[in-house]
Amino acid sequence: MALTIPVEICDMIVDHVVATVEKDYSLRDLFPYTLDLDARSQLMSLRLVSRNFCAAASLHLFKRVIAPINSSVRGRSSLQRFIEISRSKYAAHVRNLETGYNSWFASLCPIIGQEIQDFAGLLSPCLAQLSDLRVLKFRASVESSIRVMTRDQERTAIEAIVTALRFVILPHLEGLELFFPMAHDFRYFFPSPISPLYIPMEDLLHGLKYLALHVTAYTKELGQRYWRTPVPPAYAAFPNNLHAAHLFRLVELAPNLEALRISSTDVIPFHTIHSSPALRLTSLCLERVLITFDHIRALTGQCKDHLKHIEPSLVELHSGTWHMVLTQLRQLPHLIDISINSCGYPFTGPNAHLRGILPEPDDPEPLETMNTADYRGLDELKDFVNANRVALGLEPWERRDSRWSR
Q1: Lowest mean pLDDT, pick from 19-23, 198-202, 217-221
Q2: What keywords would UniProt list here (predicted)?
Q3: 171 φ, ψ to 5°?
Q4: Which of 1, 168, 361, 389 has its CA 20 to 30 A from that of 313?
């Protein structure tokens, strides 16, 4: 007679397999739905032990579903698997869905027109079956010098996700991450006129804790750092810096965010955004944006009692100095996680004379500056962050840590 392991014991074993210890600030605090590869492999093995183990392990395995357009396993496309999951009892377990274009399979599985059409047709009905979805990550493109999708294919993919978010009610959605080619593409969320049958974007965005918006295509060659990427005419007609308002409008309608990430290829003017006065961020990540000291001071002052994590990368400071910015960050009592990468000043404007010489691509510096006071501000911020970490029982970072070392 086979030994039946009680459900409670199975749950305890599975919980032990997926348990992780996070010492630093992490988005896992907000969205604990991902699994490392070892845990996933162990869970798949546990599913084969017994029905009780299968039920307990499946609860975690199906929390995160990855269903890219352009990949397949053992002859089955990921979209086929996505359909099967959405029609099964496991649909209720799904908390995190990642779909759209998969950059890892670009050369192995190029996208064809039929795949795009299939994806556009099935996304909304499949999404509607995920009754407890918390995080949605969608990629309509990827930053690359090689174009793997035509402009028409990109539009079809973008229209598919916009339609899904306009007509499918996702009452528990907390995190949204979007990769679009151009800032101009975000305008699809705000058509004119707006149908009365649409779910208002305000309703969708009001419940978000995490919002990440990425612009992945260059719209001009001027300002590219090391190697020039050709800009197709379809992109050049809509410069990212002139159409960033479409992207920022989504941020402005999300007053309850705890984590915000904005990244772009071309530098876009983040200081033009009008964020909600109710915003209380714990995490802020900005890549390739133009900002002013006054805007940084206002935003960090508003979120002073909440910010734990700040990550500026390739950020250009239009007014003020980085010493002023880094000194301002020392006013954040809970800051324990900061990473600074290749931040500096723009080519033009009042700070152009402070711009440093561009470092070698394989030897980046945290600050690209001619102002020696900026690095003094960085050293003072390192000491401040480490003091906060020690006070919480966390390991202090080494002075040569890659997060801020040169």
Answers
A1: 19-23
A2: Protease inhibitor
A3: -65, -20
A4: 389
Q: Are residues 298 and 273 in the same domain?
A: no
Q: Which pLDDT score is estimated for 144?
A: 60
CB atoms within 10 A of CB 337: 21
Parallel, antiparallel, or unpaired for β 175-180 and 76-77?
unpaired
Residues 308-330 pLDDT 10s: 999 999 999 999 999 999 999 99
**Longest Cα separation, the chain:** 82
How confident is the model at residue 133, as a pLDDT? 94
pLDDT value of residue 23? 42
- What letter represents residue 92's amino acid? A
Report how far residue 364's alpha carbon sits from residue 342's, in angstroms, rounded to the nearest whole number: 6
Residue 87, SS3 per DSSP: coil
CATH number assigned to the domain comprising residue 252: 3.80.10
Query: Nearest to residue 373, comparing CAs of 312, 338, 327?
Result: 327
**Domain assignment present for 2:** no
The upper half-sphere exposure of residue 282, i.e. CA atoms within 13 Å in the direction of its Cβ, equals 13
Residues 265 and 316 in one domain: no
